[in-house]
Amino acid sequence: MGNVRGVINTVDFFPAAYVYIPGINPKPTRMAAAAAWASDGTLKMKWHYFETPHHDTVTCRFDNDRVEVNFVNSVTELLGTSSGMYNDTRPVLRGRLSGEG
After folding, report:
1. Which stretch of DSSP H or E encloses residue 94?
2. How far apart are alpha carbons 12 and 37 in whole angstroms?
3. What's the rounded Cα separation, in Å, for the pair 61 and 1?
4. How would you write the pLDDT of the chain (101 residues) with one tens digit per residue?
5. Quick check: 87 and 75 in contact, CB under 8 A?
6. Deepest in the core among 36, 43, 79, 82, taking most CB within 10 A?
7. Residue 64: partners with Cβ closer than 8 Å, 6 or more residues away
8. Largest Cα–Cα distance of the chain, in whole Å?
9. Would you say 53 and 74 are in contact if contact means Cβ atoms under 8 Å apart?
10. Phi, psi of 32 (to 5 degrees)
11. Best CA proximity match to 94, nearest among 53, 73, 66
């Protein structure tokens, strides 16, 4: 896992910034985020979008030189994937450390 955990403390709050909400009609909106270590090597973030009731949960799993990033929107989190109402279709992102910086 290297030095990743040292970069973000137990809980950090990030200031509001403009981002694009994923969906049918993406538009810029302000958001705020909070992050905490769920376990050794697993960082969970909540991205809360201003002026909406929605949020994203972003989970980053670190394993040696690899990282996996998973996104789940608040509707999928609430209803589960079995409902079929609005399943989050964003792919799991996988990466690997390319070398020393």
Report:
1. strand 93-96
2. 10
3. 10
4. 444 444 454 444 445 555 555 555 666 777 888 889 999 999 999 988 887 888 889 999 999 999 999 988 888 888 876 666 677 778 899 999 887 65
5. no
6. 43
7. 1, 2
8. 44
9. yes
10. -130, 150
11. 66
Q: What is the C-alpha to C-alpha distance for residues 37 and 57, in angstroms, rounded to an integer?
A: 13
Cβ atoms of 44 and 34 closer than 8 Å = no
For 13-39, give the DSSP string. EEEEEEEEPPSSS--EEEEEEEEEEEE
Q: Which two tokens stand for residue 70?
A: 């998973």
Looking up tokens 């996996």 gives 68
Task: Give the angle subtended at the CA of 89 by the CAs of 62 and 87, to the nearest 5°.
Answer: 110
In one letter, which amino acid is 76? T
Q: Which of 34, 46, 36, 35 is nearest to 72 (CA)?
A: 46
Structure tokens at 90: 């964003």
